[in-house]
Write a structure and sequence with these properties.
Blueprint: H1 17-42, H2 44-57, H3 59-87
Helix pairs in contact: 1-2, 1-3, 2-3
Length: about 100
């Protein structure tokens, strides 16, 4: 028998559990996206390097660098969502 602490109405239990899980996943992923956008848009050296690479490489640069990195980002994002979802599952069965 586990000792439980009282929680508020919006605690991490009951009908609000799924909402808090979704919010935590969305916030963590959006934070990474915002930081990436800030780096690419507001750091002149990075912005200029990407523009130069697109001008010089064109389609080859897009197919060799941007597409594979996008696929890797999608795989990593999906894996991160699964890990975060299971970490907050609270099943207690130990089969993770």
């Amino acid at each position: 028998m586990a000792i439980t602490l009282p929680t508020s109405e919006l605690g991490i239990n009951g009908k609000y559990r799924t909402a808090w899980r979704v919010i935590s996943v969305v916030l963590s992923l959006s934070l990474a996206a915002v930081l990436t956008a800030i780096v690419f848009l507001f750091i002149p050296a990075v912005n200029d390097a990407v523009k130069l690479a697109l001008d010089e490489g064109g389609v080859v640069f897009v197919l060799a660098v941007i597409v594979p990195s996008g696929i890797l980002a999608a795989i990593t994002t999906a894996w991160g969502i699964v890990v975060l979802w299971r970490a907050t599952d609270g099943g207690g069965d130990g089969d993770r």
